[in-house]
Amino acid sequence: MPASPSSFRLRWQGVVIAVLTIALVWWFAHSLDWSDVWEAMTQAHMGLIVLTIAVTVQTYILRALRWQLLLAPLGRARFGPAFRTTVIGFTATFLLPGRVGEVLRPYLMARESGFSAAAAFATIVVERVLDLATVILLFACFLIVTPIDVGPEVKFGGLAATLVCIAALGVMVASAGHPERLARWSGRLTRLLPARAQAAVGGLVQTFVEGLAVMRRPAGLIGAGVLSVLLWLSIALGIWATSRALDLTFAFSGSFLVVMFLVVGVAMPTPAGVGGFHAMYQLAVTRFFLAPPDRAAAAAIVLHALSFVPISILGLAFMARDGLTLGGLRRMKSNAEAEEGRATGT
User: Quick one: pLDDT band at residue 71, thresholds 50, 70, 90?
Assistant: First the structure.
């Protein structure tokens, strides 16, 4: 029996991810002195390591609180389910290919709490916009306060991106009360595109409009923005504490620069960001803070482990309690994507 196009595509996707992971790990590891890396890891300051673990858990608490606020207009969104599904969703993203958790998290929450699946999916769009805007704003703060010469092009690009994000957030706030206007405006623009592009762009815009419909209360959006800043400051604190634990000393604001690099690293579709996370951290701290490459590599390995392992263990525990397995989550993804397709009209 011939393989279906979807299974063929999945196999090739797996091959591409495997090749990319191997290439990134090789780029990160090929020139290291592993005896020096191990020595640096064994000399890490345990008090700061424990602090990083606590900060990592705090970060997911803040994620759940923010999501709870975004879901509030849909009905009563309890913290317990929001936290549990957030942790399970990120665990699935860490351990399974294809960023499964980004689809499963709102699907599980909608199923458990009785929310509209379309609206639950749309809140993830709002989350992503808030995350991007916050990361760029923190990067702009780094550019303003740092004595490091990062070059005029980098400063100009960071400040320009900040202005764009501020404008985008302003549009979100202004459109929250009247999402139908944005839908009509975008519909006029998409008429200029080919039919297939119209469908794709139209689906994305419709999802975004659903998110704005959920956020008809500007106060809620502002509150979510404040939690986004606290969330990314928590992530930056974890980066700074781990770096200090391995005797890499730079100002706390320097972690805002490292965050930008790590966002690029984890965007690469490798399991739990393996390779990309490590390489981007090492590049940032060696290029801008003159860290020794082997010690930077040790800090990257420790930071990656502290960022992903504790939450994955907690997520697997939640899954066991709920009778879920990784295989079951993969099968559930097809149902979730069907719900998302109906939500976006694609």
Answer: confident
For the chain, how many structural domains are there in total? 1
Task: Please name the residues in contact with 288: beta carbons below 8 A apart, sequence gap of 6 or more.
Answer: 148, 150, 254, 257
Burial class (CB in 10 A: 0-12, 13-18, 19+), 15: exposed
What gap in Å lies between CA 202 and CA 199, rounded to an integer? 5
Distance of CA 299 to CAs 14, 276, 282, 323, Å? 29, 14, 8, 36
Q: Is the pLDDT of residue 294 over 90?
A: yes
315: left (phi over 0), alpha (psi -120 to 50) or beta: alpha
Mean pLDDT (the chain) is 81
Give residue 188's domain range.
34-344
Q: What is the pLDDT of residue 164?
A: 72
In a domain, 239, yes or no: yes
> What is the spatial distance between Cα 113 and Cα 76, in angstroms, rounded to a whole number?
8
Residue 234 belongs to a domain: yes
pTM exceeds 0.85, yes or no: no
